[in-house]
Amino acid sequence: MATSMASSMLTAQSVTPSSIQSSTKAAGFAVDASFVRPLRTRVKICGMTRIEDVDAAVHYGVDALGFVFVPASKRNLAPEAAQALFDRVPPFVQSVALFLDADESLVETVISKLSPDLLQFHGRETGAYCRQFGRPYIKALGTDLFVDPSSGLLSDLLADHATARGFLLDSHATGALGGTGSRFDWQHWPQGHYSSVPFILAGGLDATNVSEAIQRLQPYAIDVSSGVETAPGVKSALKIQEFMNKVNPIG
Ligand SMILES: O=C(O)c1ccccc1NCC(=O)[C@H](O)[C@H](O)COP(=O)(O)O
Question: Which residues are annotated as catalytic?
Fold first, then answer.
C-alpha cells in the first residue's frame, strides 16, 4: 500500500506538462496547447452489436465503443435496435456513432434517438457536412493520402476538417468500407507537423501486433474491430482481454 502510494505520488510529480510535451515532440508530433499526449493509449472498440460484448469491453477498460450505422456493413445497426446497446454504455465510456456518406436524415435520427457522445465519419464527407450536426466528430482518413503528402490533398482535407476532434487512420481507401482487418504500411503513419489534433491508429490491429504499433507509432489512441472478433460483429471476451492487456499492460 505504502509502496503503491509512493509510486503514484512519484508519477504525479514527474508528469509536468512540459515533460509530456517534450516527450511528444521527441515522437515527431506537432504539439500545441490543445493536445497533450496522454500517458496511456486510449482504446475504442468498433462494431459493437451485442450487449455481452459491450459489457466485456467495459469490463476490460475500453474508453469508447463504436456503433456502425452503415447499411452495407455486416455490423450495421438500425437506430431502433441500437437503443439497448446505447443504454448499456456506462458513465465515462464514450459512445461513437459511425457513418459512411450517410443521408443526413440517418445521422439526425441517430443523434435524436441515441445521443452519441461522438460522431465518426468514414467516407468522403466534407467539413461542412460533418459540422452541420453541431456535434463533436472524428474523421477517418485512408492512408493512401499519406503516401504523397506533397500532393496537397492531405493538407486540404486536414484544413477542411480543422474542427474535427481527431483523425482516424485506417487501411481503407477513402470512401471504401472499413473494418476489414487489414493493416496499412505503417511507414505512412504521419511523423510530421500535419495537425495539432490527435491521430488514431486503426486497421488490422490485434493482440499480436498492437504493442509494436504503439511503441513504433505512438498514436493518441487505437481503434480495433476484426482483431477482437470471431465473426463480423461478434466480439470475443477473451480476445478483448488479450488485446487490452497488450495495450496497457497491468502491473
Ligand atoms: O466495421 C465496419 O463494418 C465498417 C463499415 C463501414 C465503414 C467503417 C467500418 N468500420 C470501421 C472500423 O471499425 C475501424 O476503422 C476499425 O477499427 C478498423 O477495423 P479493423 O481493421 O477490422 O480492426
Answer: 46, 170
Q: Ligand 1, closest atom to CA 44?
A: 17
- Whether 119 lines ligand 1, by a CB cut-off of 6 Å, is no
Nearest CA to ligand 1 atom 17: 224
Task: Compute, in angstroms, the gap from residue 46 CA to the centroid of ligand 1.
Answer: 7
Q: Is 226 in the pocket of ligand 1 (CB under 6 A)?
A: yes
Select from 45, 180, 225, 234 the residue to mutate for testing ligand 1; criterion: most ligand atoms less than 8 Å from CB: 225
pLDDT tens column, 204-213: 999 999 999 9
- Domains present along the chain, CATH in parentheses: 38-247 (3.20.20.70)
Block residue for cell numbers 441517430:
110
Q: Which residues are within 8 A (CB) of 69 and not within 5 positions of it... i.e. 6 or more apart?
A: 76, 77, 79, 82, 97, 98, 99, 102, 106, 107, 110
Q: Is residue 225 in contact with ligand 1, taking CB distance under 6 Å?
A: yes
Grid cell for residue 86? 446505447
6-63 pLDDT tens trace: 333 333 333 333 333 333 333 333 334 456 677 889 999 999 999 999 999 999 999 9
Arithmetic mean of pLDDT, 154-171: 89
Q: Where are the alpha helices (DSSP H) in the chain?
A: 2-14, 17-26, 51-59, 79-87, 104-114, 127-131, 144-147, 153-160, 210-217, 237-247
In tens, the pLDDT along 6-22 reads 333 333 333 333 333 33
Instruction: Write the single-letter amino acid at 160.
Output: D
104-114 and 79-87 helices, crossing angle to 10°? 30
Q: What is the CA(116)–ligand 1 centre distance, in A?
A: 18
